[in-house]
Amino acid sequence: MANTLLSIQVIPKTPNGEDSIPYVDRAIEVIQKSGVKHQVNALDTTMEGEITELLEVVRQMHEALVEAGSPSIISQIKIAHNPNGISMDKLTEKYR
């Protein structure tokens, strides 16, 4: 079982004030390609896995946004870590 949930909202600065959605889409592509369990929400994306693995995905997201032309990125991150295990499904099952 995974030991970490990490929710991230990327806020990329864009060249010439263009729309940020294509940059956010690129960040989500990095998550999708990583293979980690994730859920895209309206204002953030939650990933489930091991803490080192998830932090590496965050690093890759930032690198991809810089490569796409973003001069800077702010990310708001929330981390829930439990060495005994944690899951999105378990935390939300009573609401579904």
What this model shows, in words?
This protein is of the alpha+beta class and 96 residues long. Helix content is 38%, strand content 28%. It contains 3 helices and 4 strands. It has helices at residues 21-34, 51-67, 88-92; strands at 4-12, 37-40, 45-49, 73-81. Strands 2-3-1-4 form a 4-stranded antiparallel β-sheet. It is elongated, with a radius of gyration of 14 Å. The mean pLDDT is 96.
SSE blueprint and pairings:
Layout: E1 4-12, H1 21-34, E2 37-40, E3 45-49, H2 51-67, E4 73-81, H3 88-92
Antiparallel strand pairs: 1-3, 1-4, 2-3
Largest sheet: 4 strands, antiparallel
Using only CA atoms, what is the Rg? 14 Å
**Morphology:** elongated
- Strands of the largest sheet, in order across it? 2-3-1-4
**Strand-and-helix sequence, N→C?**
EHEEHEH
Q: Name the structural class.
A: alpha+beta
Kindly state the number of beta strands.
Answer: 4
Chain oligomer state: single chain
Into which percentage range does the β-strand content fall?
A: 25-35%
Q: What is the averaged pLDDT score?
A: 96
Identify low-pLDDT runs: none
Helix percentage = 25-40%
The separation of the N and C termini measures 21 Å
Number of helices: 3
Provide the descriptors you would attach to this structure in a database record:
96 residues, alpha+beta, 4-stranded antiparallel beta sheet, 3 helices, 4 strands, 38% helix, elongated
